[in-house]
Design brief:
The protein has 386 residues and is an alpha/beta fold. It is 39% helix and 12% strand. The chain is built from 14 helices and ten strands.
């Protein structure tokens, strides 16, 4: 494909950098966010995406466990934590965790993703036993659990260091950190929206310690609230610099902010344009990240299909239940899932090749019959832009 004929003149210098593998600058990132030709920005991102992965698009069979929604951080962007007019408070007992895992024992899950609120009533042993319980019920499963904010809380209640807490969690079976909890690496945004949580430098220090201990990590960026374009680009550059330093980040997931039932309900909800641009710019700026994910629960399956041509190579997974983002007015509805047939259909319909992966992006080949047309129907609950 002759990219020069489809990329406008003011993006030609970026095209030259992309084609030569040269790192993009802060000014480049800002231009990409402001440029009116979104398809051209997507085409640039697709060059990088196809250079790294060809037509492959990854998905995983996974389950989410959100063990408590009690939280003392009161972040303004959050609809998950228990509050007046919001979801009722809960904390899962270990028996309830065990039952949740057993509920899908018939499903060949390879990854369990577990995060929760900062609940000061939970003892240190709870977190260790949570990991052990998952591993007991799912021997060999990859456990991705606890944001850096949770790690700091776990160390506090355990009266130990961050390194000590991580070592204990690893001994209990922890395999990776999901990487959320900082939203945007901006002191201004931190002070205004989530000042009770750890700041950017503290978040990065947890990541450095985890890297020294050999933990795989993931990164995110929450966009579409009060952050500026410049703050988004600075966030991506800080992630890129941290990856240069540690080399332990496997994937980056841009997460769209959903204002429903938060303290920021006056903010307009995300659009497909927002989702595609943030995925594309992330792919272009994060040259040292192998994977960029479109999280279909926040972006919708339809936008995720387009995102596979805008820099994303990963669609996340089957999920089964998810509680962090609720459809407006439906706090009780936790069932948000795509079965593997849905995932395969979604990727194929987008013109990509579906590849089931494990948590390290190794391909998994299963001896399963081809799904019927009725099994391939997309049955997920649409959220953003629905």
């Amino acid at each position: 494909m002759n990219h020069e004929t489809m990329i406008p003149s003011d993006l030609q210098p970026i095209l030259q950098k992309v084609e030569s593998g040269e790192r993009l600058s802060r000014e480049d990132g800002i231009l990409l966010y402001h440029h009116p030709d979104l398809p051209a920005v997507g085409a640039l991102a697709n060059i990088v995406r196809e250079r790294k992965h060809g037509d492959r698009a990854y998905y995983v069979r996974n389950q989410h466990i959100n063990y408590t929604n009690i939280c003392n951080k009161f972040c303004k962007f959050c609809s998950f934590y228990a509050k007046k007019g919001g979801p009722d408070p809960y904390e899962m007992s270990l028996d309830e965790v065990r039952a949740a895992i057993r509920r899908y024992k018939h499903v060949p899950i390879t990854e369990v993703h577990s995060v929760g609120g900062i609940n000061p009533r939970l003892p240190y042993t709870y977190y260790l036993d949570l990991i052990r319980t998952i591993k007991e019920e799912r021997p060999g499963v990859h456990v991705k659990a606890f944001t850096a904010v949770e790690i700091v809380e776990i160390a506090r209640v355990g009266k130990t260091t961050i390194e000590g807490a991580l070592r204990d969690l690893i001994s209990a079976g922890l395999d990776a950190l999901p990487g959320g909890g900082i939203e945007v690496l901006s002191d201004r945004v931190h002070e205004e929206l989530f000042g009770r949580k750890l700041n950017g430098e503290e978040w990065k220090e947890v990541a450095r310690i985890a890297a020294r201990l050999g933990l795989t990590q993931y990164a995110t960026m929450l966009y579409g609230h009060i952050e500026t374009v410049e703050e988004r680009v600075d966030h991506l550059i800080q992630l890129r610099e941290l990856q240069d330093e540690t080399g332990h980040f496997l994937c980056m997931t841009p997460l769209s902010f959903h204002p429903e039932k938060t303290d920021l309900e006056h903010i307009a909800p995300p659009t497909g344009n927002d989702d595609l641009r943030n995925i594309a710019v992330s792919r272009l700026m994060l040259d040292n990240f192998d994977h960029i994910k479109s999280f279909w629960i926040m972006n919708t399956p339809a936008v995720t299909q387009v995102a596979l041509w805008y820099g994303a190579d990963d669609c996340d997974g089957t999920v089964l239940e998810y509680e962090i983002t609720y459809k407006e007015g439906e706090f009780g509805n936790k069932s948000q899932s795509l079965n593997p047939a849905n995932m395969i259909a979604m990727i194929r319909e987008a013109g990509r090749i579906p590849v089931e992966r494990d948590s390290h992006y190794n391909e998994i080949v299963r001896d399963e019959p081809e799904p019927s047309p009725s099994e391939r129907r997309l049955t997920a609950i649409p959220l953003a832009g629905a």
